[in-house]
Every structure is written in structure tokens, then in C-alpha cells.
């Protein structure tokens, strides 16, 4: 009888655990930990082996800066192809930020204040690149630049900038518009009631309020442009237009050395650094403020 009672008590405990909505989410915790390990462990291994003294990417042979600075031909510092790819990558990222963030901010303000069916059509067109697969956009731009505009736009840096700008423009538009929806028109109206012109209200009131969302856009567009492969590969031209992502992909398919790991580490560190700086500036700018949509985005 005691065995039967113990079995029944155990069954009740298990049933009570699964029916308790406030129980510890052990399954979700385990799933989250496994996902993080699955995602981060390969990245950590790649970073660690960028400091391997030997050419192996699976056998540790001692710590060294060989693939960063010391090797006379195959280090990042001395490999002209990798150096050119690094310069091209960050040139494209910076120019893309300088184009898309101001334009995206202006488009967000315009779409936010424009009403009616034409506004909905413009909004849909603006956000189209956000939902269209990047490979379709890249191939479409390739066909466009090599047929209709082949006399004006050559494949290479110019085409890559236009392609990245077309793909990235929707990000600042969405982020800035989310901030606009959260602050409302009251601040601008108050500024104009106090004697300011519409231009002054935008310049001195609206833009400072949009600064955190703009900074979030800068961080996101820069990081995504540095990591972009599909668009820049579809629109690349001469060897000078090869980016770091293309160089890593090409090297990984042949006989890679830990120099590939070092190049990937450069991309990883630069994007993480940009996100960290952007988040720090965002937190400083939003101290004591309710940032609405922009805040929700940054918390994600």
C-alpha cells in the first residue's frame, strides 16, 4: 500500500508541476542555453584560432599574432588583397550610412505626415526592400545596371553603394517612424506656438527628439552593411571592389588559413563595437525619457 501511495503522490506532484503556470521555465531555459551555445561556440572557436601559431584551423599550436601582423605574406597586415577588402568594406558601410540615414529620416517624416492613398502606396514602396529577398533585389539591380543603365553605372563601388542604399533605406525609415509615432505632434506645435517657424521646430525640437532613433539606425545600417554579402557580390566589378565578406567566402572554399579567422574577427569586432557605441549613445540620449518604438527596438 505504501508503494501505491508513493506512486500516487509522485504522479500528483508531476501533474501539479505541469499545471502550474508559475513554475520555473526549465524547458525554455534549456532551449535558450542550447541555442546560445550552438550560435556562439563556433564564433568563439573561429576567434580563438585566429591567434593560432600554425596553419591548422582545428589543431591548437600555440598563441601567436602571425595571422594578424607577423606573417610576411598571409597576415592581414601584409596581405594586399585582404587590406583592400577591409578598406572597401568600411568605405561602403560608411557611405551607405551617410546616404540612407538622412534619407530614411526625411522619408519617415514625410510618410508620417502624408495621408491618403498615395501615402499608403509610397509607404508600401518604401518598405518593399524590407520584405523582398536580398538575392532578388541584388539580381534585379544587376540586370538594371548592365542593361538600361550600363552607360552610366558600372559594376563596382558605385553600383554596390546604390544597391546597399536601396536595401538598407527601409531600416532607418521604420525606426525613425516608430519614434515619430511615440512622440506625437505636441512638441512641434508648442515650439511654433512660442514663435518658431516650422523649419526651426523641426531643426531644434523634432530632430533632437529623433536623435536616439537616428543613432540606432546608424548602428544597424553600418553593422548590416559590413556583413552584407549578397548585394555586394551581385554588383561587384573589378578586384578592387571585393569586400571582406567576399574575400572570406572565397578563401574558405579553397585552402583557408587562420588568416580567414582573423579577417572574420575583424568584421565581428567592428560590428559589435559599432553596436556598443550606438547603444551607449542611445542610453545617454534617452536618459529619463520614454522613447516608445525606438526604445522597444533597441531592447530587442
Structure report:
- The protein has 300 residues and is mainly α.
- The chain has helices at 2-19, 26-49, 66-70, 80-113, 117-131, 134-146, 157-168, 170-183, 186-193, 198-227, 230-234, 244-252, 258-285, 292-299.
- Helix 2 crosses helix 13 (258-285), helix 4 packs parallel to helix 8 and helix 9 (186-193) runs antiparallel to helix 10.
- The chain is globular.
- Residues 291-300 have low confidence and may be disordered.
Give the rounded overall mean pLDDT: 79
Low-confidence stretches: 291-300
SSE pattern, N- to C-terminal = HHHHHHHHHHHHHH
How many helices does DSSP assign? 14
Q: Rounded to an integer, what's the Rg over CA atoms?
A: 26 Å
Our measurement of the CA-to-CA distance between the termini, rounded to an integer number of angstroms, reads 55 Å
Task: Report the structural category.
Answer: mainly alpha
3D shape:
globular
State which percent range the strand residues make up.
Answer: under 5%
* Largest sheet report: none
Roughly how much helix do the residues carry, as a percent range?
over 70%
The strand count comes to 0
Task: Write the topology of this structure.
Blueprint: H1 2-19, H2 26-49, H3 66-70, H4 80-113, H5 117-131, H6 134-146, H7 157-168, H8 170-183, H9 186-193, H10 198-227, H11 230-234, H12 244-252, H13 258-285, H14 292-299
In short:
The protein is built from 14 helices and no strands. It is mainly α and 300 residues long. Residues 291-300 have low confidence and may be disordered.
Label this structure with key terms:
disordered C terminus, 14 helices, globular, single chain
